[in-house]
Structure of Citrate synthase:
Amino acid sequence: MSDKATLEINGKKYEFPLVVGTEKEVAIDISSLRSTTDSVITLDPGYKNTGSCESAITFLDGEKGILRYRGYSIEELAEKADFLEVAFLLIFGELPTTEQLQKFHSDIKAQSVVDEDIRKIVDAFPKSAHPMGVLASLTSALTAFNPSSVNVNSEEDMYKAIVKILGKFPVLVAWTFRKKNGLPLDYGDKNLGYVENILKMMFKQPNEDYKMNPIVLNALDKLLILHADHEQNCSTSTVRIAGSSHVGLFASLSTGISALWGPLHGGANQAVLEMLESINADGGDTDKYMAKAKDKEDPFRLMGFGHRVYKNFDPRAKIIKKAADEVLNDLGVEDKILEIAKALEKEALQDPYFVDRKLYPNVDFYSGIIYRAMGIPTDMFTVMFALGRLPGWIAQWREMRLNKEPIGRPRQVYVGETLRSFRAIDKR
Ligand code: SDX
């Protein structure tokens, strides 16, 4: 195969180098396009055909339904690793030794208290505030309480900022959850595991000891692993481009949380449950809603279906669907919603509209059913997605900074008015 691509514009030929990745993906390096042609650029709304970077963190193949973190398959990691181990792998590139994981966890625990003044910010929010908006604000506010973690350049300073956010973010998640439920904002226990501590901080009632449910713990650990990274998705690209201005890790993460909130992205897990509940309230008539999803005149979409990249089954959805069955069975939860979800999936996988468009269940289709069975309210589902995605965002931000990538600044094709003269108001 040639190592160059040739482009012909107005009879003149231009050559551009090809970049081939370790999984044989091929890209045309157009970084010299504008300077070597007469300011010609490319146009690709939504960047469906455009790579923003070279990355060594996550590989996914949408056609084959493959997802790997640093070369390890998501299936193996979900079965054999725990979330903190996967966080270390994503951020630093290798699975940790026992000593490395112990040091990582103790460095994180040393940072797992937040400034008491943050309680005042939490208190200022109405109970009706959406948790994702609260979490984005609290994450950005961390910059004010940790100024030394802002514009970090050395690997050592980056490490300090990373263990800080990994220690404090679960507290912000727990306090966001507890605020909505009128519970005291307290801490967990440094003697617990990372995910155990998250569950205790979220669910401990003030008047009783918290009893850890191993089924819930195992399910949450697996869900967080499955959400941990997904290469250059909307929110991760947002973290990378915000971070490219050197605004610092916490503020960059805050932009990612806001991007994830959208119902077309991470907010879909909440939208899926709301959709399933409305179908259930409407008598469980899945045919009616399948018809609505296919009707071009109807804005209704089958939430939890379709994906920008996966044109095959989302490998995470397969694992989560199996976990949903296990968790509900183990918890003895009979959930009509799960039956409706399975009926919709069965119909969609046979329906030409969905098959022709390669619309399969994605990561969000079943995750909410497990969160609900765990006692997590619907509007906290995307917060749990953010908790899982945190190490991926951190890994991508760190890679962008260590690679000394330039500030992100896409171009445009201007299609507005050409030059015209100002007219006084009485002449308009
Ligand atoms: C996540 O990018 C990532 O990696 C994201 C993520 C991650 O881990 O970070 O995987 C997490 O965001 C998962 C996706 C969660 N979103 C949803 O479940 C919302 C519902 N899905 C859709 O809105 C949609 O499928 C998207 C946004 C996910 C993908 O949209 P695309 O690839 O831009 O597809 P499209 O909008 O161009 O649609 C192609 C066709 C259209 O029909 P035609 O115009 O060809 O006739 O498929 C149709 C669409 O109308 N279509 C759907 C549909 N999704 C696409 N029709 C009905 N229901 C749907 N869900």
About this structure: The pocket of s-citryldethia Coenzyme A is lined by residues 230, 233-234, 264-266, 268, 293, 301-309, 357, 359, 362-364 (CB under 6 Å). The mean pLDDT is 95. Strands lie at 4-9, 12-20, 26-28, 58-61, 66-69, 72-73.
